[in-house]
Amino acid sequence: MLSLFGFGPIIYATCLLLNAVAILSEDRFLARIGWGKSQLNDPSAGGVAFGAPAQDPESFRSKGINLISSIRTLCRVPLIFINTIIVIYELLLG
Known about the structure:
Strand content: under 5%
Shape: elongated
Helix content: 55-70%
Radius of gyration: 18 Å
Largest sheet: none
Number of strands: 0
């Protein structure tokens, strides 16, 4: 382990949380709880009246959906390298 009182546990926890968000399946999990990207603008999901905007862009739900989508898009390739470095570090010095 990197260091008990240093940045090691913070790095590990951040990496694990990013991994958890990156592997969430939109079809199997997120769509079932209403957090899929397709439900963001779906008027039938929120019971929105005709002509009204489908989802408030400042709401917690829409920000969460956009955050999950961004993490899944942008962090996928860097997470592969970070995970590889952590595994190699743990095998050699762990």
